[in-house]
Structures are given as structure tokens and as C-alpha cells.
Fold these 3 entries.
Entry 1:
Amino acid sequence: MKLGLINSAWAQAGQETAFGIRKTKEIGFDTIDIFADPLDLDVEEKRLIVDTAAECDLPIVSVACVALGLIDFNPSVQRFHLERTTQYLDLCYELRAKNLLLVLGEYVWQQEVIPPEEQWGFAVENVQALGERAEALGLEIAVELEPFQASLVNSVDNMIKFLDDVGSPAVKANCDISHLHLVRTPFADVQKLRGRIAHVHLSDCDGKRHGDLPPGRGNTPIYEYLSQIQKTGFDGVVSLELEYSPEPDKIVSWVEEAYRETDTIMKAVGCRS
């Protein structure tokens, strides 16, 4: 497996795009993921991302997209987010990324007003359309398991049902290790996703609240989950997700610490290539 970093770590600490890409390479990461909205990117920023990544010989693997409106009950909102997410896929293609990391939304009103099966159906229909576009571009969509009570996909079993209902070879799972811990996923359940994992996120947490901490600052059994992911045959990229550092002015040491700890774990598992 390769070790990557989502560039939101730098952006949320107020660092410029080129600085973040260059520092990612300098620290030792193999790849980088981009968190950027194509509706907010101008042509200069796109070129800066492409050129700086190429200069650093740092492949762009994934583009992260939060598209909560794909399961909104308003058709106009769904249409907007379907078009917006399609533009994300086009951005992946432009950046020569391999997958779009897709975060879906949550059930509204405690599932008491809009029948939950209707929102599920909205997601399936819209992701099927996105899957067709992804397949045409030679891309994959990695659906993220979110560890919140109302999240549409918040367990391994929900993930499998969703992927089955979508039925697209281009639509797979993102395995977020701290999220698996937060929903108390049995280690062996990771094997249910054999052949269906497109991407992996890695961070730590305290087991109670979403954290995105450097490994070692929480109690996530990262070694155990990563070992199970390796046993599925996955040999792609594990991307560190480090967001909302409590000390933005110390973001470089924050990322360096996370790199060292993750590299140590991956080597202990025997999966760092």
C-alpha cells in the first residue's frame, strides 16, 4: 500500500496550495488527495495543483466531495448536487486522480417525516447516474462510511446494501479506520468488503467523538483494522485525514508526527510498499 495525505490538513491551517503539496512530498508521503470544490476553483488554481504535484512527483489519487444534497427531498436540490458531483468527477479526470471520495448525507427529521426508504432511493438513483459517468471516465467512486447516527451509510452492512443496490462496478467503499472504530465494527466484518474497497482513510480518535487525530493520540485499534484491510487484498492508498488541528500554527509538526506514526504501523503490518 501507499501512504497519502489529504491536503485539507494544510488548507484548514491557512497554508497555500503549493506549500501544502511541496511539504507533503518533503515529509515523505507517496501520494496526495485534493479537497477542493470545482465550483470554487479557477483555471489558475487547477493548473497550480497539477503543475506542483507533477514537479514534486506526487500522484493525485483522490478528490474529496461532500454532497449532502444528493439525498435532499427537494428535486431541485438533488439536481444541483448531481450536476455539482459530476463536475467533481470531471475534476478527478483533469487531475488524473483514481477516485472520487463521496460523502452522502443524513436522514432528516429523525426519519419521521420523509420515509427513510425514499431518501435511500434518492441516493441509489443519483449514485447510479454518477457511477455511469465515473465508469465512462475510467474512475471509481469511494463511498465513505460516516459514523453518525443519522448517516445514510453508517455501518459495513449498510455499505454492502448500498453498493448492492447501486450495482455499479465503479462504485465501491471507502474504509475510514477511525469511523469503523466509532461504530464498533468487529474486525472480522472488514472482510465483508473484500474486493469492494477503493480507498482508505486513516486517523485516530477517542472512540467516542469524531477526531481526525494523528495516530497515537486516541485509542483507535489502527493496526488491527489495517491488518484486516490488507487481508481483503486491498493494495491501494491509505490517506491520512488530519483536519481542524487545535494548533494551526504547528501544522507541520502535526503532519510530521502523523506520518511517522502511520509509517511505523504500516511497516509493522507489513503493508507499506
Entry 2:
Amino acid sequence: MRAGERVRVLALQAASVLALLAAWEGVARAGWVDPLFVPAPSAVAGAFGRIGRSALAGLGDTLAKTAIAYALSVVLGVSGGIALGSVRALREVLNPFVVALYGMPKILVLPWIVLLLGFGTAPAVLYGTIHGFFPIVVLVAGGVRDVDRTLLGVARAFGATTWQLYWKVVLPAIVPTVLAGMRLGIVFCLLGVLIVEMFAGVRGMGHVLNSLANGFQAPELFAATALVSISSIVIVLGLDALNERLSHWRS
């Protein structure tokens, strides 16, 4: 996309957001919604000042736990997906279990995790890792299976070793799939950590959100939710930028 087109797109996106906020403000000021549940954007903006320090501290704690869970889920998910996609015997034995666990509501294991690990960082990291692992491993395994067999055959015909086969053919071919899995994984990891913090946490952004909701502090709750949403969007956009850079490596 050229610079002029990019500026025009960004301007349209900013105008859309401002129009939405203006409409929301107008509806709230007209009294069409109950401010106890849907405060005006101006009230939400004022709430940032009241909860800024505690919300940022909670967000930092949540993002730190999410980063650990995400790193574990990416390492385990990508390596496990490559193994499942490459080794037929392993895929035939384990794939039904992976698919079944992927489809199972993860909330079912949360009480057991809390029972075993108690409260704190460990259950949040483990639950976040579980949430992020399965979409990554399933997507990567499918990406490896979909690699063009003609490319693999040609590489073998030219004497490529197993290492060269993976480094020169398989990995470049599955980069889009891995990045798609990573984009899903970070969202699911953050979701898992927030869930644990809401229901079994003593700190973190999930705990902050739960406390604000129980106190019927709607403006503060909207402000804290906006912080989490903005953080998630920034991370996903960063992964999109990484995808753009890696697309040059693939070519």
C-alpha cells in the first residue's frame, strides 16, 4: 500500500472511531441508556485518572503472565504441530485426542488447576498456556500436512538432508499458518489468564475488572476494559507487522 493510500485509510478509520464515540456520547447524554450500566465516553475518560495507577499495575501483571504462557504455548504448539504433521504414526495415534481436547470447553479444567496449584501466578500461566496451545498445534499440524509434496520430492531428489528439508521447504511454507496460529494464540492466552484472575486471582487485570464489576463502577470498568482491548489490539497488529517482514524471508 502506498503512503498516500495508507494515510487515507488511517484517516477513515480514525473518523469512524470518532463518529462512533460521538454517537455514543449523544445517546448517553440524551438519557436513552442507563448511565449505571452504559456511561458516556466522557465519563469513561475521566475514570482513567481515578484507576490509572492500579489498572496499569494490574495490566502489567496480566501481560507478564500472558507473555510466559504465550511463549510456552508457541514453543510447544509449533514443535508439536510440526511433529504431528510430519510423523504419520504419531498423527494417527494422537490427532483424535488433540482434536477432542481442542473442542472441549477449557473452563472444565479450571477448578482442577486451582485445586492443584492454588491461587497466584502458576494457575494463570498454566491455564493461559492450555488455551493458547491447542489452536497453534492444530493449525501448524494442518499446515505441515498441506505442504506441496512436489516441493518435498524435488528437494529430496537434489539430495537435501532432513534438516535442509525442514529449513528450506517446510518452515517457509508454513510461516503464514504459524503466524495465524500465533495471532490466535496470544488472544487465547490473554483470555485464559484473565479468566483465572477473575475467578481465582488476587491481583492482575482480571481481578481489577471483577472488583469494578462487583462494585457497579461502570465508568471505571469501561476504562479498564478499554486498556485490555487496546493492549490486545496492539499485540495483534505487532504480529501482523512481523508477518509482513517474514513474508520477505519466504520469498
Entry 3:
Amino acid sequence: MSDLQERYDFAIGLAVEAGALARRMRGAMAAADAKSRLDFCTEADLAVERLIRERVTTRFGDTMIGEEDGGDASDSVWVVDPIDGTTEFIHGTQRWCISLAYLRAGQIEIGVIYAPDDDRLFAARAGGGAFLNGRPMSVSHLAHGAVPVVECGWSERRPLATFTDLLHRLVAGGIEFRRHGSGALGLADVACGLNDGYIELHINAWDALAGILLVREAGGCTNDFLADGGLRNGACLVAVTPELVARIADTLTASSGPIRWFPPCPS
């Protein structure tokens, strides 16, 4: 077994273990701590991140960057959101998940997202395809024949007016929009064809990297998130079925500048 295959199998098992821990803690949590007006951290976030860090360090000795406790990048690094969609988690909805990505030499090699409440496990390895609960998945390719639907995440790091301008431009271009509260699951939904795209004008790496690989391995297109400094500072994120590349590029160029697509993507 290759070391990447070993890490891939490990990530799948770890995501399920971490999800089980979060679910056990959910009913007995103290009040959440506010990191900002709209961003929260619970005891479960901290406990899950500690679990993942301990497992990764013990098994492989790799470094890890987590949402809650940070960490150092290296040529062999895990990037982890212990609970993406913490507000949804607090409010008792199913829209939250565990997100694990593994990078080697600056490239995303493994991405795993697990949504415990509805038992959806998304997994991808670079060059090996993308899977939902073990079955191959694909972006929509607009095969539904209906109006395209794009989920739009919002970050406090960008002005609200910029976000609403994006929504106006999408609607003017004949594209519907949604917002469901988890960037990682928004990307997973693109990868399995439930949505046709995901856009967030600023998103952090731990929310994005696993989902980026899922979309690419499922036949979709993303911008070159890491080339834009996304690992450390976050960046704009665009992930779409290939048939939307030109329309989304026109929409975003008008509001936030040209997109640097991660090859290969149609122009």
C-alpha cells in the first residue's frame, strides 16, 4: 500500500470517528464562544480538532493547520475544519460536517468531508476520482436542463455590499442562488451534482481545500485557490460545473476581477 493510499484510508476513518465525537458532545455543550459577531466556537470544535491532531501526529508525524488552534505548514500537512457549519451545529440542523484535506508539496492530494447527521461521506484522492458513500460522483454538467443554481457563501472579510452585488449579477445572468451555511458542504454539493456551483468572495483554507479536490475529481472546475495565497490568508473561491465557466467568469470579472482557473478548465 502506498503512503498516500494509507493516508486516504486513514482520513476516511478519522472523519467518521470525529463526526461521532461531535454528535456525542452536541447535547451537553456549554454556551458557544463568539470569535466574532457571526463566528462561533464550541467545546465540540475544540475537542474534535484535538482528536484529529493527536491521530495525525501519532500516525504520521505530519504537521496540521486547524481552524481553532492553527498550526504550521510543511511539505506534508493536513488542513482541517473540525466542524464546518458551527452555527448550524449549534442550532440543531444537519448542515455541518468534518472537513479534512491533506497536501503534499503544495498540492491537494486527499479531501474528505463527512456530514454525520445524514451519514454522507465524500472522499477524493488526486487522480483517483470522487466518491459519495463509496459510489462515484459527478458534477451536474447542467444535465437537469433547468436554471443553474449556485450557492454563495458570505464572509465578514468582504463588504456586504460586494456580496449583494454578486447576487444581483448572478440573477441578471439567469442564475439562481442559495446560501446554506457550510462552505465545505456547499462544495460537496457541487461535486455530487446537487448544485451547479459555489462562490465565496473570501473563504479560509480549512473550509475549502477538501471540497476543492472533490469538485475537481468529480469533473468540475475551480479557481487556483492556493496560488492566490489561500493556504495562509484565505482567498476567493469559485467552483462550478464546466458548462458555467464562461458565465461565472464574466460575472466575477465585473465585480472582483478576472479568475485564474486551475487547469484544465474550458475558457
